[in-house]
Structure formats: C-alpha cells, structure tokens
Design goal:
About 50% of the residues lie in helices and about 20% in strands.
Length: about 260
C-alpha cells in the first residue's frame, strides 16, 4: 500500500486529521493505507485514554502499581513491506509513550510517598513541639495524666484540698489570689475552713466563683503547682491522689523540692 501520495504521509494525516487532497482520495492504494493508519491511531488513543482514566482515579491509602487496562489485542492484519514499516513506526511510538508514561507514574508515586513521609514527619514534629510547650501546662492544670511519681509529688506538697471558689482577687499584674471554701482535705488532715493560693496572670483554666477546684501547693510556695477545675477534672485527679496518698506519707521529698 502507498504510504505517501505527493508529499502526503498517510500515518501523519491519520494522526493530525488533516484533510486529504482530492487526488490522494482518488488513489485506492493510498486510501487503504490511510484507513489502516487511522484505525491504528484510534486504537492507540483508546489505550492511552484508558490509562489516563486509571491515573486520574483517586489514589488509595496504599497505592498499588498502575495496571494497564486489560484489552484483547487486535489481531494483526496481513501487511506488505510498506505496511510493516508503518506498523513499526506505530509500535515505536506506542513504546515511547509507554516508557514516558512509566516514568511519569514512577515519579508521581515517589512524590506521593515522599509527601506522605514528610507530612507524617511534620505531624510527629508538631506533636513533639506541642507536647513540649503544652504538656507542662496540661499537667499543672490537671488536664493531663497523673504525675510519673505520684507518691513523691504528694510528699513534696504542703497543701492538697478540694473546695468551692469563694473569691477571685486580681492582684494588679501580680497574678490572682483564689480563695477556696474547703470541702475535702488530703494534706494536711486538718486546717482552716478557707485556704488560698496564687495563680499567674496567664494560667489556664481560670477558676471562677462557685466552681469546684482541687489544688496542690508545693512546700515553700503560695503558687498552685497543680489545679483542676470542674467536677470531671477534679474527680480524675482525686482518683490518683487517693491512691497515692498512703504511700506519700512514707516518701521523703528531696531537699530542693523537685519532683
């Protein structure tokens, strides 16, 4: 079959869709080659479109290798020398497209994996930063877990009580004085009906009048070392205090008061 007619290439005409001159249309051999080339190009476009659909699908959490769409290959047509040359060009073009596609898919997967690793590393780093900056505040405000050495912590406290906030007295930039009407004592066993402690101006949560509070004050200090506000937080801290209190009576506090 004629691959060209007066400078018009049958394969390129099929790819570009250019209009054929009337003289070329009148050449039966050229038109047979053009129809065959058009069919091959259409098949190639179908295959690339199917591959594109696979790539455009939303990625799974654990992406698996992209599989080429299953399609029964079209039975080859008998071809003469010219037809084999045109088929070779189509095959080489398909091979080049497949190689380029494999490279793109590989790079895309690599970027996705690296992005996922970077995101995970970023989340881990952020969690570590948050733990370092907010962990101590959570521990002090009674929102976090019990101390790692609860008996030692209580041994170093001079005051551990529950009560209802009677007064909140700001001290003009010097923190806030909280006065509690005591409802339950842990340490010491006896004492006045009201106790007070200090909170820094930026300390959270801020107790309000009428709220239930459990507070610890360390030896040699008037500032709260730990406080819990509200029934749920008070109950959670009460649980570990009641459990650790007997052992704390037989635990010595270091001279520097550290826990």
């Amino acid at each position: 079959m004629a691959a060209e007619y007066d400078g018009v290439d049958a394969l390129m005409a099929a790819i570009t869709g250019e209009l054929l001159p009337d003289a070329a249309r009148a050449d039966a051999e050229f038109m047979a080659g053009h129809r065959a080339a058009t069919a091959d190009v259409a098949l190639l476009r179908e295959q690339l479109s199917a591959i594109g659909d696979v790539l455009a699908a939303p990625p799974a959490e654990d992406p698996s290798p992209v599989k080429a769409p299953s399609r029964r290959p079209r039975a080859p047509r008998p071809a003469g020398p010219v037809r084999r040359g045109r088929a070779l060009r189509v095959a080489l073009g398909t091979l080049a497209a497949a190689v380029a596609l494999s490279t793109v898919v590989g790079l895309a997967r690599l970027v996705m994996e690296n992005s996922g690793s970077d995101a995970q590393a970023s989340r881990s780093a952020g969690a570590a930063d948050a733990k370092g900056s907010a962990g101590e505040a959570d521990r002090r405000s009674g929102d976090g877990p019990p101390p790692s050495a609860p008996e030692l912590t209580l041994a170093c406290d001079r005051l551990v009580v529950e009560g209802t906030v009677a007064r909140v007295e700001p001290r003009g930039g010097q923190g806030t004085r909280i006065v509690l009407t005591v409802t339950r004592r842990y340490k010491p066993d006896r004492g006045p009906a009201e106790v007070d402690f200090l909170l820094d101006d930026g300390a959270l949560p801020r107790p309000r009048r009428g709220q239930q509070v459990l507070v610890e004050v360390a030896r040699g200090s008037d500032d709260a070392s730990r406080w819990a506000v509200g029934e749920d937080r008070v109950a959670a801290n009460r649980a570990w205090i009641v459990k650790a209190l007997p052992g704390s009576r037989h635990t010595a506090c270091p001279s520097d008061g550290s826990t």
